[in-house]
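2024-03-11 09:14:02 DEBUG pipeline.ingest accepted 1 chain
2024-03-11 09:14:02 DEBUG pipeline.ingest length=333
2024-03-11 09:14:03 DEBUG pipeline.predict start
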Amino acid sequence: MTFRVGDLLRDRYRIRESVAQGGMGSIYLADDERLQGRQCAIKEVIGDPNSAPQAQQQAREQFYREASVLARLDHPCLPKVSDFFSSEEDDRDFLVMDYVPGQDLSQVINQARDEGHFLAEAHILDWARQLIDALIYLHSQEPPVLHRDIKPGNLKLTPNGTIKLVDFGLVKLLDPDEQTVTIVQGRGTAHYTPLEQYGGDTGHTDSRSDIYSLGATLYHLLTNEPPIEAKQRFLKPNSLPSPRDINPMISPRIERAVMWALNLHPDERPANAQVLRDALFNGIFPDVTGKKVFVPHSSREWVERALSDPIQLRLAVTASILVLLGVFATFVK
């Protein structure tokens, strides 16, 4: 049953409009009649009506377990889950979250492409910094929380410049036995989904799966083009174009970090969000032996880093003196 404008849920939430609809449920914008002036987003999750009663009961218990975890989350880049409940009439569950105003980043990309330009790298890095901070927060929960559907369409740019990671439809809690549990069965969106996630609930996913999706999102933001799907890349190695081949204004360090995150095998990606942040913003990458190396964002950054290191500073001063002595000796002759 689809809700209509004006319908009242749980004697509290008055439906204002349908925001999105799909086979597994819908998202509605509603007014909270207990808190005047507050708008909220209500995510409807429809269970499988053909599943056995025991499976339906397990799915509902799973929903409440995971919704309880989401309700405890508190981060500036995550919409707050304020309520959750189930319908007594049919197999539907509901998450009530803060309504997030603003454009999603897929709309921002489309606008830039239509206007014939790329988004500024500085803006993208600001969004990346916020998202990585949110992932570090999610992945540090007990148990860790994975989003599993990071993509431009699930990222809202609010009027004050904050990025909000919305739609926890595929959220996964990492149980100690590493079994995948999800509120809604699904595998994400193809262009942003790593290979290991195609196993569904039998596949092994961990924090590196979100790293891949974030890398794919950054690729799209930097180039105005989504990356080639992981399944196609597996069949055609080296088919993914370099971001700088599409947008030469991208700095080499940023390209290197994004391509690192987009490795098909999880072991070849950054181990966690903190490692990706160190690569993007501090230029720390592993070399072929696994040793950390510094990759500057620009020649100026290389000089500044060298001068901040006492050993490098002494070497630079010594080298400068030797150069000056060489020049002086040339003029004396």
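2024-03-11 09:14:41 DEBUG pipeline.report The first helix runs from residue 53 to 72.
2024-03-11 09:14:41 DEBUG pipeline.predict end
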